[in-house]
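Feature request, filed as a ticket because there's no other form

It would be nice if the structure record came with a short human-readable summary line next to the tokens. Right now we just get the raw output. Example of a typical job, pasted below so the devs can see what we mean:
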Amino acid sequence: MQSQYTYLAISLHFWSWFQLSFRLSFGSAMFIRSVSVTA
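Raw output as currently delivered:
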């Protein structure tokens, strides 16, 4: 039972890290696009 909770915590941690990195890269891409459009 403990290993199941550990696997769940690890997968949740990796999913949140992946979501954060994706959001950061997407936000920076949109920022660069808006800057290049206004420039």
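Something like this underneath would help us a lot:
The radius of gyration is 17 Å.
Residues 1-39 form one domain.
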